[in-house]
């Protein structure tokens, strides 16, 4: 196999953490529907035989010092020279970061495991690896859906806490600029989100807007972290839903009936963990929905379309061989560049590709963005295609 991903573990490896990282990593790979055979695990023992700078690589470096020397420093120097992405981990406060990693990676953004539960630490590490391989969007987006008169305090608290954990969070009172069309922007931000955090309170379904938010999340197959208040029940009909049931003790002073009630930090950390864990599954579900719809249209139009093991669609139409890449949310110029680079590398041994397309769902994407994508199509070699127009395109 010529093209594969390399997951590298170096440094003072925590052998309590390592097997769990591998297990969760491959669980997420399975959820994304990618063959495990495309991944190699590399450490100092097999680095010389297995590693190549020709394929994507991501290194997790466990920081520590032994006799005033850093472990695997020579290999780290090689990886930095090859522009490999690295995630340094330390089990101390980040203020001590430089004491635990080689000088050459002291400018890298590291992750402190201090104060994190093992589960949350693993989710963060795995998410970083998947993002580095472009298997998850590097921009993490979450949408908080709530009833203002029930849970404004927790909604604002979650907005701030998820932001601190590197999510781009949408909250209706904080995220829409003045003069923007409120409802159009709200729906677009939801469709471009990875996960919806739904605050399931007594009166959540009494609002027309929250009902629509739940309906649109289900329609778009967006995963829901359903945070259920004490004494209330799970909202039924919420697809791809992970349920986190709150107890009175999860709230500061056990006060959960107050609109301005706040959660304690342990509960907030668990919600972040749920949100991290659900990302891969919801993105995979949305990708699968795009793929199945495209394959259905191709079959109806008698066009040859084959799903590759990389989850790209190989298309033969009018004597041309093209690749169709399903994208989640709004495609951007960077998606086009990354797709072209990756695909040309994967298919270089199979001969010339005529065209590359990025497939996306245009529902609830604002006209201003659709016009922008049409403008990009005039100038970029990689073109975008709306799923709503695929039937007509394939039939012509």
TrEMBL record:
Domain TIR: 138-263
Highest taxon, organism lineage: Bacteria
Pfam family, one: TIR_2
Matching PROSITE patterns: TIR
GO biological process: signal transduction
Protein's name in the database: Toll/interleukin-1 receptor domain-containing protein
Keywords from the named record: Receptor
Organism listed in the record: Acinetobacter wuhouensis
Family annotation (InterPro entries): TIR_dom, Toll_tir_struct_dom_sf
């Amino acid at each position: 196999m010529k093209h594969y991903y390399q997951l590298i573990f170096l440094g003072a490896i925590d052998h309590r953490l390592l097997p769990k990282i591998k297990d969760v990593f491959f669980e997420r790979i399975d959820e994304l529907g990618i063959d495990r055979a495309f991944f190699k695990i590399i450490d100092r023992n097999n680095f010389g035989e297995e590693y190549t700078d020709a394929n994507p690589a991501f290194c997790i470096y466990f920081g520590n010092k032994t006799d005033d020397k850093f472990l695997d420093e020579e290999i780290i120097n090689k990886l930095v020279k090859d522009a490999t992405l690295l995630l340094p981990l330390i089990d101390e406060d980040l203020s001590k970061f430089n004491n635990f990693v080689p000088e050459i990676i002291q400018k890298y953004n590291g992750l402190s495991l201090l104060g994190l539960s093992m589960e949350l630490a693993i989710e963060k590490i795995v998410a970083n690896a998947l993002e580095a391989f472009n298997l998850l969007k590097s921009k993490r987006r979450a949408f908080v859906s709530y009833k203002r008169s029930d849970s404004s305090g927790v909604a604002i608290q979650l907005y701030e806490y998820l932001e601190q954990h590197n999510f781009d969070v949408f909250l209706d009172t904080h995220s829409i600029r003045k003069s923007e069309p409120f409802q159009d922007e709200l729906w677009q931000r939801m469709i471009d989100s990875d996960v919806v955090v739904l605050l399931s309170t007594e009166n959540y379904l009494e609002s027309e807007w929250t009902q629509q938010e739940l309906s649109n999340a289900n329609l778009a197959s967006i995963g829901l972290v359903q945070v259920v208040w004490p004494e209330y029940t799970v909202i039924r009909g919420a697809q791809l839903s992970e349920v986190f049931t709150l107890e009175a003790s999860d709230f500061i002073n056990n006060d959960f009936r107050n609109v301005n009630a706040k959660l304690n930090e342990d509960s907030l950390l668990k919600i972040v963990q749920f949100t991290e864990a659900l990302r891969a599954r919801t993105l995979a579900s949305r990708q699968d929905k795009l793929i199945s719809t495209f394959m259905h249209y191709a079959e109806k139009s008698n066009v040859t379309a084959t799903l590759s093991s990389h989850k790209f669609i190989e298309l033969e139409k009018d004597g041309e061989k093209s690749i169709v890449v399903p994208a989640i949310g709004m495609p951007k110029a960077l998606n086009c560049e990354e797709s072209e680079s990756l695909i040309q590398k994967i298919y270089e041994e199979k001969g010339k590709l005529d065209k590359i397309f990025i497939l996306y769902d245009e529902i609830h994407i604002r006209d201003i963005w659709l016009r922008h994508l049409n403008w990009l199509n005039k100038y970029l070699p990689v073109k975008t295609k709306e799923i709503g127009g695929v039937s007509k395109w394939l039939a012509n």
